[in-house]
UniProtKB/TrEMBL annotation:
Residues 73-201 form the CRAL-TRIO domain. It holds the Pfam family CRAL_TRIO. It comes from Onchocerca flexuosa. It comes from the Eukaryota. This is CRAL-TRIO domain-containing protein. SUPFAM superfamilies: CRAL/TRIO domain, CRAL/TRIO N-terminal domain. PANTHER family: CRAL-TRIO DOMAIN-CONTAINING PROTEIN (PTHR47159:SF3), PROTEIN CBG07705-RELATED (PTHR47159).
Length: 201
């Protein structure tokens, strides 16, 4: 493992946060970079971070998230929401690339077929796969890593269902991701964008 590149100030903040949640942290999740992401995502405001992190750690325990990435990706929803992890970026260091076939995914059919809790749990499996790869990269390089999330909008159709999805179920999933997987995604990139997206955006 390469030397861990974290500033002294961040190290001190990480230790403060670690002590605040030590009774809930598991050895798997207890890494400097995992805690650093929470600090970065909430501007080092411990009054905000600690309750949010405790809530996430409760979820990790309830859903056995530490072990989820080791289990088969075989929820029925995964038949329709394909995995998109491709591996490390070639030219950009410390980045894991995920490509989602957003335009061709039948999100409307998914929400008609599966409950919101099932969708969240199935989606969490992918998020834990992201986190596992990030943690492995960080362990190897000693540097903070993150995900580049590419959304391929090929065949995306503009209709009432799309607007409902964007303001409802998909917005809820996005909120869940940002609440529980803070600073894990480096940036989103849209490709094959239809012209009508300018109207929505």
């Amino acid at each position: 493992m390469s030397p861990c590149i974290i500033s002294k100030k961040d190290k001190e903040a990480i230790e403060t946060l670690r002590k605040a949640v030590k009774d809930m942290l598991t050895p798997y999740y207890d890494t400097d970079f995992n805690l650093l992401r929470w600090l970065q995502g909430h501007n080092y405001n411990f009054d905000v971070i600690i309750p949010k992190l405790k809530n996430h750690l409760l979820l990790r325990n309830s859903w056995d998230l530490d072990n989820l990435a080791s289990k088969p990706r075989n929820h029925p929803l995964h038949t329709y929401w394909k995995a998109g992890l491709t591996g490390p970026a070639i030219k950009t260091p410390n980045i894991i690339v995920n490509i989602e076939q957003t335009g061709r995914n039948d999100y409307w059919g998914m929400i008609q077929t599966f409950s919101s809790s099932e969708i969240m749990f199935a989606r969490t499996h992918d998020l834990e796969l992201f986190l596992r790869q990030i943690m492995e990269m960080e362990e190897k390089t000693g540097q903070q890593a993150s995900v580049m999330y590419i959304m391929d909008l090929t065949d995306l159709k503009f209709d009432k269902r799309l607007l409902t999805l964007l303001t409802g179920p998909l917005a809820n999933i996005s909120t869940f991701m940002s609440e529980h997987y803070v600073e894990m995604i480096h940036k989103f990139a849209l490709v094959n964008v239809p012209s009508f997206m300018a109207t929505i955006w």
